[in-house]
Amino acid sequence: MVLNCIVDILSKQINFDVCRCCFRGQVRNLEAQNRKLADELDKLKTKWGKETAQIKAMFQAELDEARRALDEAEKEKARLEIKVASLEEQIEELRLK
User: Quick one: which H or E segment has residue 27?
Assistant: First the structure.
């Protein structure tokens, strides 16, 4: 009876040790995979940053020119709106005469 209890306890201890060993192996594998993925992410971030800078450099002059053209168009629109309002006032004055 006592011998059976001891055998049972030892069996459970061995099973526990096996499970713990497997768990440690899985943890090591996951840690290695995590390091690999972190390295890959760093490489992609570096590559993305370089490519973004290159694309920006390629189109910066065009973007600047487009901004200047837009600013000029907005100024011209404001000037024309003022002129239209003035002409509408003149037309209204002529109608009232």
Answer: helix 2-96
b (16+ CB within 10 A) / e for 59-97: eeeeeeeeeeeeeeeeeeeeeeeeeeeeeeeeeeeeeee
| Residue 74 confidence (pLDDT) above 80 | yes
pTM: 0.45
Q: Does 3 have pLDDT greater than 80?
A: no
Q: Which of 56, 38, 36, 37 is nearest to 48 (CA)?
A: 56
Residue type, 63: L
Whose tokens are 């760093």? That residue is: 42
